[in-house]
Amino acid sequence: MDRRKFMNTGVAAGAAVMGLTAGAQASEQKPMTILGIACSPRKGKTTATSVQVSLDAASQSHSGIKTDLIDLGGLTFSGWNSTGKFPEDDFTRVILPKLHDPELGGLIIGSPVYFRNKSSLCMALLERMSVIRKPKLLLVDKVVGVLSVGGYRHGGQELVIQQIQTAMLCHEVVLVGGKPGAHQGATLWNAHKDDITQDEFGMTTARQLGIRVAEAVL
Q1: Are 142 and 173 within 8 A, CB to CB?
Q2: pLDDT, tens digit, for every residue of 32-42?
Q3: What is the pTM of this model?
Q4: Fewer CB within 10 Å of terminal CB in the chain, N or C?
Q5: Radius of gyration of the chain (CA)
Q6: Are 123 and 166 in contact (CB under 8 A)?
Q7: At a CB cut-off of 8 Å and minimum separation 6, what does 56 contact?
Q8: How many CA atoms lie within 13 A of 170 on its CB side?
Q9: CA-to-CA distance for 43 and 54, rounded, in angstroms?
Q10: How many whole angstroms separate alpha carbon 98 and alpha carbon 164?
């Protein structure tokens, strides 16, 4: 066999093996879950709707993605305290089991803007999530995207996004923004009496965020 024929045969064989390996990996890959958490006390309102839009875009963009939503509106739990010990509450009953899901690939966290800051529910969530940092980092290398809903177009949404991202860096997650128009995260404007779907620009950023999180998870 001459050298050229040998090289062509070797390359073809290598490509075939790689193709079989990739095919086997694809067939064995389990669906990954993206968990959305809406951190507004107003259950089912603009923040929850926005997070759901982002989750829907994620699942529609890739068949290997499943989604789940936790709406903190109506749930009861406190932030951190001096003892670090808590009675059983909605954080331990509802939120913590989903953070321990072995199929969890990423999070989309959404908060309303209150006085250019995240909601107290969001702060309580971030504080209580400290329990999943020890004895090991449970969320290390999980993908996280963030969105925020404000009463004005430039009402502090990007500040809130940055605050949540900064806290999540303590978990050594992989932070992502969205596609063009949502490079830092999704920013939405509640200017239509709680019908956030009327904010076309904001809806686009929510979808772009969901698609980008799904890509990064996979």
Answers
A1: yes
A2: 999 999 999 99
A3: 0.86
A4: N
A5: 21
A6: no
A7: 67, 207, 210
A8: 13
A9: 17
A10: 19
Third-level CATH fold of 31-217: Rossmann fold (3.40.50)
Residue 82 is given by DSSP the state: S
Q: Environment class of residue 175 by beta-carbon count within 10 Å: exposed (0-12), middle (13-18) or buried (19+)? A: middle
Q: What is the separation of C-alpha 89 from the centre of its chain, rounded to a whole number of angstroms?
A: 23
Q: Measuring CA to CA, which residue among 206, 180, 186, 113 is closest to residue 151?
A: 113
Angle between helices 200-217 and 46-61 (to 10 degrees): 50
Q: Is the pLDDT of residue 4 over 70?
A: no
The phi and psi torsions of 173 (rounded to 5 degrees) equal -85, 175
Instruction: Give the amino acid at 215.
Output: E
Are 108 and 51 within 8 A, CB to CB? Answer: yes
- According to DSSP, the residues that pair with 71 across neighbouring strands are 38
